[in-house]
Write a structure and sequence with these properties.
The chain contains eight helices and five strands. By secondary structure, the chain is an alpha/beta fold. It has one domain: Glucose-6-phosphate isomerase like protein, domain 1 (Rossmann fold), CATH 3.40.50.10490. It is globular.
Length: 187
């Protein structure tokens, strides 16, 4: 029966939410609060559905918060410019599509939020490594076993779920939790 499949999905989302480490979310929320106060930039990156989530979250943090509270986070999705992405992938390497942009745009104490289901995508790993070299604060929202990113990010929000769709859902859940907290504290 179709509705059983939907109920099962809903139950798996509920189970994933119970696995969230809220202290890790608090660390990211405080980092974003600091970025808001100090006008630091926040960069998002991800592949596939996580790339779309990077766009979504950059919009939420720049416009969604700014529209309601007039406290604007300088948010950028490194997934936004197709010309840059395809040029870098073609001319340099797909592994460097995010790290190259960080080298060009980011500064010390800016924030990177890497979104990844597996935590093993070479371009995400390279982005975190580059962020740390620059002196940025590197955060990651991860699924599955967290992969390499779990080890190298300054703060990893790891939701151990072996399902890509639910992992991507949890990225937005975490983003929306923080967005609502920022709205309640900045308005």
């Amino acid at each position: 029966m179709t509705t059983d499949s939907f109920k099962n999905y809903g139950q798996r989302i509920q189970q994933a939410v119970t696995k969230i480490d809220y202290e890790k979310i608090n660390l990211l929320a405080n980092g974003l609060w600091d970025a808001l106060q100090t006008k630091k930039q926040v960069f998002f990156c991800g592949n596939g559905g996580s790339a779309a989530n990077a766009l979504h979250m950059a919009n939420d943090f720049l416009y969604g918060i700014g529209k309601r509270s007039h406290a604007i986070i300088r948010a950028h999705a490194l997934t936004a410019n197709q010309s840059i992405l395809t040029c870098l992938a073609n001319d340099i390497s797909y592994d460097e599509i995010f790290s190259y942009q960080l080298e060009a745009l980011a500064q010390k104490d800016d924030i990177l939020i890497a979104l990844s289901g597996s935590g093993n995508s070479p371009n995400i790993v390279k982005a975190i490594q580059t962020a740390k070299i620059i002196g940025m604060k590197a955060f990651a929202i991860l699924g599955y076993d967290g992969g390499r990113c779990l080890e190298i990010a300054d703060n990893s929000i790891h939701i151990p779920i072996n399902d890509m769709q639910i992992s991507e859902d949890m990225q937005l859940v975490v983003g929306h939790m923080i967005m609502q907290w920022l709205l309640s504290n900045s308005g």
